[in-house]
Structure formats: structure tokens, C-alpha cells
Amino acid sequence: MKLYYEYGAKIYKIKAKKHDKVILYNTNFKKHIKISHPEMTIKKIQEILENPDYVYTPSRNSTLYYYEKNLKDGTYRVVINKYKIKNTKVVVTGYRVNNEDEFTIKHVHCVYDRKTHVSYEDIEIELENDIDYFYEIFNIAE
Q1: Domain of life of the organism in this record (predicted)?
Q2: Residues 6 or more apart from 133 whose CB is under 8 A from it?
Q3: pTM attached to this predicted model
């Protein structure tokens, strides 16, 4: 997470799992998130964005994204939305999820699930292993 100033405002820049540029305005954190959701900290927001268990959108065309993570003391959600700068998202809010706030499969589109996610690096390794196997079977030298 990087900290910088824009027009005198303190801004945190975080590289999220599905978005390279997510910003959190310190004023939004102090005046909304910290007051309405005192259980949230900047460190929790960073952890949720960088290592979520799930990332949801209300629909395929939505600009809202819900990053969710199960921590020791409960499930937490951080909501981000598009920002005026291209390819940048902004943190809208963050809160602890209770039963009333839970999503169901029919209400959201899951864009990331930690349990089923396969990274590009894993695919590359698998392909390399397949090529090695092919060479072994047919006695082909590389």
C-alpha cells in the first residue's frame, strides 16, 4: 500500500486482487467508514483487497465490486466502484457482514473465488508438464 497526497488530501493506493489501482481517501475512511463501521481499519481494508476469499459484482455490467474475506472475528466486505480516472477504482465503504448482508448465488456474479481460482502461472506450469510428458512418451528430444 502506498500513501500519497493529492490537493492536500491523504490517499492510500492499494493493488487489489482483481484491480491494479484502488484508492482509499483518508477523509472517506475517517468521516464514513470509521464512524459507521468502527470495526474496520485501514489494515483490514488492505488485507481484504489484496487477499480476498471472494469478489462479487451485482451483475456482469456493474461497476461495483464487493471484496469479501473471512477473518478470525467474522466476515468482512469492502465495496469499490469506478473512479473518474480510467482503470482506477475507489473504496466506497467497508463493513462486517451480518446475516442480513449475506449474498446468495442468485443475487450476484462471482468474479473471483479463492478456492477455485487458477492463476496464469499454474496453467503455464501444467502446460510445461504436459509437454515434458509428451516428449517422454514419444521419445522426442527437446
Answers
A1: Bacteria
A2: none
A3: 0.77
